[in-house]
Design goal:
By secondary structure, the protein is mostly helical. The chain is 77% helix and 0% strand. The protein has nine helices and no strands. Helix 2 packs antiparallel against helix 3 and helix 3 packs antiparallel against helix 4. The two termini are 37 Å apart.
Length: 300
Amino acid sequence: MDMEAGKTLTNEEVIRELLDLLKKNAMKEQANDVFEICSYVDGLEKKIDSMTEELTNMQNQIKEMQEDTLVNNAKKALSEAQERLNTRCEQIKSQVLEVKAQVKSTAKSIVDEAKEKGRAALYRVTEFVGIKKRLLNVRTAVKDMIVSTDRDIARTALLAKGLREAGQTINNAFHTFADKPEVDYSQKEQKHPFTKAVLAPMKAVKKLLVSMELQLDASIDKLDNLAMNVQFDKEKRMEHTKDKDQKAPDTEREIIYSPMVAEPQEYKYNADAFEARKTSEAKQETAGKELPKVREDKAR
């Protein structure tokens, strides 16, 4: 378990690098959104690990059940239920791992481009919204698993009740046979041993699933929020750039809006042209900014 702990998204170097760039470029809200989205995904993974522990514990408890004819038949049914839950748990885990991988590769691609092209590349954090589809799929899987876990809990409770009552009937039959008084079981609340062995872990799994669903809802909201925040920041800067427009020639204005447009000097592959371009970009950055704190990224 400890080895896994180091692999949380919030501890990934590339994520930290991206958060750092966002903060240095006065995009604190976006940084918070990205951080929270990563924490949610880490949280999902942690809950899946707890679920796996519960299910492993359940498997061991089923194996250790005392052997008698009644329980033997029950054990088979319970083992099947445990395997069903386990399979679903594994599927959800692999979906969450895919989300993690996508978050990491998106972050890396943005960080690489931001190092080369500056602040404009950071608007690409909206690409994290790309994990929304995967998260929605995880949510569907979690909801399905909640339904099947509920069903298994109900069936297990019924089975436990049946075995308990059957056991009491048999005990009383022996008592009668031996001319002993019958036991009034209604006065003794007896739990069948596998109520603890099987029902408890099933209920724990259900609880984890319900909190996963809430976490998924929250992370999906966060993604929408992130997209909105980026849009808001873009518009704010556009307004800001327009004020400077009268003083800037047309070509420069074009570059400020869309850094993706190829400039002629891009095709001269010599170091001078590259330097010249960097300098002109730095000038534009300065032209487009009033806030001194935004300059932190250039001061690195």
